[in-house]
Amino acid sequence: SDVCSSDLHAVNGWCTPRNSVFEDIEQSARIGAGAIGVWEGKFQNGGDDEIGAALEKHKIRAGIVMPHHWTILPTPLDPGGMSQDWRTKCDGISKSIRRLAKFNPVGIMVGPGVSGNPAQRLGPVAHVIEGLKMVADAAGECGATIAFEPLALRRGAAVATLPETIDVLEKVGRANVMILPDLWHSYPEPDFHRHLKANAHRIIGVQINDARTPERSWCDRVMPGDGINMCTPAIAALIEAGYQGWYDFEVFSDDGRWGNDFPDSLWKLPHEVFLQRGYDAFARCHAAAAAVVAAKQIGRAHV
Q1: What is the C-alpha to C-alpha distance for residues 34 and 63, in angstroms, rounded to an integer?
Q2: Among 87, 138, 231, 278, which residue's CB has the most CB atoms within a 10 Å radius?
Q3: Of residues 129, 138, 179, 136, the one with CA closest to residue 158
């Protein structure tokens, strides 16, 4: 059977910049995704009831959804004039959480923040920990779960590796905070597959994409299984660990809106074609990863 139809494949609403939230819902349902990570930045003046009705009509659930602004500390992508104060940012995230929780999502995405400069990591981590407590408590009041995404060391993230993330979660001490690794951010991490396996029970979703070498920008990702194909071995590690959660398709491919008009930008495709290709690429990666795991198990059985 098609792995994707068994509630594994989700779409992230950030990777369809020309779509409205309603187009995201309709197209994700048509390609066969089981969930859509709606982004509050596309909600435009309310319309929450209509969004809920669209999810119901298209029989697709709210996946890992995104507050309008989602990081505790700043990022270079924050709009000009936005507060840099972590408490103010967390108040905004908490307000978004109360709105997004109405959709009964898989999780609500929150990140630590990045400097954009690998030589200068953002901090202090103590503010990430305190901020995460604040937003986790806001989510707890709504019965929601936080999906905390460690970000890339090569982007100067305040919290980057899985061991650092576990350490932060231990200090936060809230049962409703789980981990959302993004393969593009995390794949260069030492012992990444071992850490994925060891912490599979704490993972709420995995953002899937692949990486080029060399990378032309942060917004230069490729389909799962393309580029260096770090996707297939990572999925194999997760399957081996018994992970049965969501895989969130999130490919950014700059068409000029983030400063680089790449001639081969995947965002130049009609978005539904792009999403369908992403679905098919994930299905191939998942099948290849499952075959790797099965071959290993057969090998062990014959030892």
Answers
A1: 8
A2: 231
A3: 129
